[in-house]
């Protein structure tokens, strides 16, 4: 089994950090673009897609800056993160997605994130 490596994707977004953070960190926001149904209880998100459910615990978060989650079935040290940055040059809001995948799967995983983020941008009117 190959070891997973961390990769990072950046998406410029025309939206305030506070609005974007709501879509990244709340059940209602995540349900708009990330999963069919989202629940949150005891620091754990439950995401449902087509009847299948996956759970992810919140490892760390800072209001309007980032939220880091770990799938409960994933090894410690692996996580996915949504981080909000502001470009010092353009003052543009940038969504940074960090995730882990096997090297040969990074392109496919990146494509999946591209699709998901495109849906997010559609929901926020970007």
Automatic annotation (TrEMBL):
Note the InterPro entries from the entry: START-like_dom_sf, START_2
Source domain of life is: Bacteria
Domain named START-like: residues: 1-125
Q: What is this protein called?
A: START-like domain-containing protein
């Amino acid at each position: 089994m190959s070891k997973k490596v961390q990769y990072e994707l950046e998406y410029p977004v025309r939206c305030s950090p506070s609005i974007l953070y709501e879509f990244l960190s709340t059940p209602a926001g995540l349900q708009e673009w990330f999963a069919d149904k989202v629940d949150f209880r005891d620091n754990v998100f439950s995401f449902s897609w087509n009847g299948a459910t996956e759970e992810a615990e919140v490892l760390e978060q800072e209001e309007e800056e980032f939220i880091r989650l770990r799938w409960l079935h994933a090894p410690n040290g692996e996580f996915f993160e949504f981080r909000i940055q502001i470009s010092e040059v353009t003052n543009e809001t940038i969504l940074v997605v960090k995730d882990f995948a096997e090297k040969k799967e990074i392109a496919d995983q990146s494509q999946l994130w591209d699709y998901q983020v495109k849906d997010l941008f559609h929901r926020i009117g970007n």
